[in-house]
User: Fold this.
Amino acid sequence: MDKVLIGENIYWAGKIDDRDVPFHRLTLTKGTTYNSYLLKTLKPTIIDTVDMAFGKEFVDNLKNLIDLKEIQYIVINHTEPDHSGGLGSLAAQAKNAVIVCTEHAVEELKEMYKLHKREFLVVKDGDTLDIGGKTLRFIETPYLHTRETMITYCEEDKVLFPCDIFSTHVANYEYFNDEAKEDITEDFVTYYKLIMHPHRKYVQDMILKLKDLDIKVIAPSHGYILRKDVQSFIDMYDKMSKNTVLDKKAAIVYSSMTGNTKKIASALKGVMEEESITCELVDVNKTEKQEVFNAIKKADAVLFGTSTKYADMIGGLEEVLKELKTLNLDNKIVGAFGSYGWSGEGIEVTQDYLKESGARVLNTSDIIKGTGMTDVSFPLRIRFSPKEEDMESVGRAGVYVAELLLNDL
Ligand SMILES: Cc1cc2nc3c(=O)[nH]c(=O)nc-3n(C[C@H](O)[C@H](O)[C@H](O)COP(=O)(O)O)c2cc1C
Ligand SMILES: [Fe+2]
Ligand SMILES: [Fe+2]
Assistant:
């Protein structure tokens, strides 16, 4: 294995995968790399591993760099098995190593790699760890790529290990961006759009956290290690994740008996307006039908809310839903929500109408397939009056719709 040095006693220990790699229902035709790093300090530390398919090979290669029993820490920035996949093989031989990760990662790693008896060190945003000659600082970066993700920063060498963030999907045999045979910008941007852009709100949070760090090298977990024009790559993420499409409108058309569905409707309006979406709230029972249709026509996204009474939707909403087919809704996003008591049929019947409308209907399955996020649901169903945790779900749903509009996704 090549000995590739990233900083003082910091070695690349990854795997170049030049297959057509199947990933997230895509084929990565340029392949990819899984970059793992060894920090050979007094308390030797591994940062991330490789894809599950190459776990054994990874561990065998690592033996050329270090006696595995000396390893004190294995930092897992992100649990997805293209990076944590070597953990099972590594932990079995690096018997003295403590696994370092965020709280959300512990359960996933224990389950995936049968590590229930293993010692874990749970770290939080801003925590530091002395690894004997170097100091690691951990920065939580939820949803970049999944909920449990964090970045590790080596203070002495000023190297950032951001896992999926700032990656490229290329099987690069030249390890560093300044050695690349061609400009890597297109690959860098394509990767961003595929993996990071659906979570762009979190990209902005991450960039704020990086502001005060002096970063000389970015050593991500796929593709090129960035050591030339480093700030320009951070600036690209900053620019691409800012709102690009403005002047988007939403309408929330609802029917409510005791005000519970109305509360959800108002909260949706509130969060969407915070995201700079103009939002019109329409109570179907107090509004002329033609006016309701006008609001729908003007909007880029329309959310329809109803509670349930005797297993059906309530008020005048069905009169509106019946006619959706006759309006041209091709370019609109629509979704259903509502409060219910025990079964909530009204919300489901609303969803059935939306499926017939010709518009793009929000649904949980597509959200999971498109983003991997499991905490945004459509139809959005809330039992009785919305409680605090319900309001959080409502907030996330509203932000999700706003993001779709602002990014033309
Ligand atoms: C007369 C009546 C019938 C109801 N029938 C149902 C029902 O069939 N299924 C259900 O899930 N909830 C049912 N509920 C519960 C309501 O949907 C629930 O209280 C909801 O929070 C009301 O929201 P709203 O204030 O937006 O109308 C019923 C409530 C009332 C008052
Ligand atoms: Fe990932
Ligand atoms: Fe990845």
Notes: The longest strand covers residues 333-340. The longest helix spans residues 388-406.
